[in-house]
Amino acid sequence: IYKKVDELIENAVKKRLMSDVPLGVFLSGGLDSSTIVAYMSRFTDKIKTFSVGFHHKTDETEYAKIIANKFNTEHHEIFLKKDILKVLPNVVWHMDEPMADPANIPTYLLSQEVSKKVKVALSGEGGDEVFGGYGTFNSIPYLERMQKFPHKLRNKIMSPILSKSSRLFNYPKKQILFLLSEIVSSKNLKEGYEKIFYFPFDEQDKKHLLSKNYQKNISLQSPLQKFLNTSKDLREGTMSYYFKEWLPNDLLMKADKMSMAHGLEVRTPFLDNDLINYYLNLSYKYKYKRALFR
What mean pLDDT value characterizes the chain? Predict the structure, then answer.
């Protein structure tokens, strides 16, 4: 099974190296982009890598450097300044529709710089969806165990303790503990699980904000609820949501529009048909915390 996945990833990367123009790769230093660089090195020793930095504690350029050094790539670092919001009007214009993903801005600026060096770039989009990388997906076993505690215990004792504890910390621990307090107070597994996704408007908000005429023509359910309600379990529903909603309507649209704003083509090896079809038929244990991929 390991040999098969290795072969599938290798073929997926190889196919996307075909190009008549200079080619590079977005390198964050994370698992997905680092894996792409590693597989590219099997076919070429001329790899151009690009990473974006923020001069902030969330900066990951040091990890990208480790990979760039290991595979001896021609590495380029692009550091964003504090005044990046000035490009927001351009970003909005190129998105052509409302989209509340803050990563649009660094993706736009990264693509702008990368397009000066190459015309095609490989990206790790789809890695979380295919291999099982999302924390939400991997939290299901913990939530199943938590639901075994009586609801009164969770609601009256565990939830208030977590809520009060959240006040002692800063972001991100503060938000995590507060969210946990809401989850443990939920009546059932599905209700608690939906809260992890933190959609800004629930059904009551939508009823309040939208006109009666408009409500007749649309579903007030969140996209996640639609998939969970039509799937056999949380695992299947979550994977359907990520593949059919989050990936095409956020991640890929963001990557496509922000890159093509600068005439840059982005290719995604992990969304190779053969690789996806093979992984979809594997059991949850291989996807849990990316077990097989790691």
Answer: 91
